[in-house]
Amino acid sequence: MAERGTVTKRSRLGKNKKKAWRKVDINDVEEALEDERLQERTGGLLEKKEDASLFYVDKSVSLLDVDKPKQSNKRKAQEKLKEIEVALQPPPPKRKDKRARAVIDRERSGQPTLTQKDSIEKRRAAKQQSYARTRNRVKMPIADVDIWAEQLTDSKPDDDHFLTVTKKKRVKAPARLTKSVSDVPAVETPHPGASYNPAFDEYQALLKKANSREMGRQRDEERIKRALDEKFPDASEAPTEVTTLQEMSAGLFEGVDSDEETPDPDISNLSVNPPIRREHKKDERRRKKEKARKQKLKEKENLKEKRKKDNNIFRLKSIKAEIRKETEEAGKKAEERAEKRTRDGMRTRRLAKTKFEEPDMEVKLSDELVGSLRELRPEGHLLIDRFQSLMKRNKLEPRGAPGRKQKRKYKPKVFEKKSHKDVK
Predict the structure, then answer these.
(1) Residue 292: in which H helix or E strand, if any?
(2) In the chain, what are the domain boundaries?
(3) What is this structure's pTM?
(4) pLDDT in tens, 299-332
(5) DSSP 181-210
(6) Could you tell me if 356 and 394 are in contact, meaning their C-beta atoms sit under 8 angstroms apart?
């Protein structure tokens, strides 16, 4: 509020200025325009309508009704309430027999029916069972058996958990533990030619087998020698730095004068990447065009795929032939897998860094054969034979012969204690 005695300056704005437009009150104009728009939306302006479209004469009231005395509002409300009560009443039963009347009387009295009583009893029994299960689950079991006794009593013969925890029942082992890791027998039957008094044909077959194995081993040694020893000469024949330099620089300085200057390379002939300019950058129009092209290509591929699927209906015979062929191939592959599984059962697996090698065959030469078993000199060693059998049957990883000293990876350090020091 302005202080008393002070004169407030009245703002004077020119009506012809745009700045003063917002100072003018135009609410009445806006209301009139809004009313006019509403009239146009709801059927037209009232000023332009005829009287017949705006007013009508009510002819539904007869002259007899005018002379009747008007009812009071209370009487009208009572009559309306009666009509509502009649509408809310349930419809009468269709069967006018004793059973229907008994059902209606029971419903009015509020007593449950037999079906309702049965359902209530079932719910009560289910709830009691649920409470019993909860109570039994919370309770801890009580051991009434001496678990340290040598023989377990038959007080709990059916409690598998109790027997398993107290070590009175063995844990069921998986089926894979019962299967042997190799199909090779523990004691292999020797070749018939290895007998102390063999037949001529069987002995020759054994010699041939031993000879082929020895020849194969010799071929492997020669192959390693050709690949390593012959390609890498000895130290006396190995090339030195001087010979290597002469060999690498042979023919480089022939016919070239050292005084002549080497010409500078032509920089214009070097290939460089073109510079990146502003006009090479993709604008919005090019990006939209490229996007539309990719979308069109994708739709074309989808249409092609759909056309292929539709055409598959007309090639049912070829599809059946393909399915038959795939089934046959699957059967062949299953047979091959079964054969491979059988071969793998007789194969020694790679269980360690070293590979298992078959031991040498124990063969007696012709001059070493004797006709008496008492004069026969034994070959091999029983312990080494069992050790080799364990490695061949995948029971042990391949390693050296038993009793062989393992080679150290590093040289152990030697410390001399003061109490054991040899003082001279």
Answers:
(1) helix 284-311
(2) 76-138, 285-347
(3) 0.41
(4) 999 999 998 888 888 888 888 999 999 999 999 9
(5) S--S-SSPPPPGGGSSS--HHHHHHHHHHH
(6) no
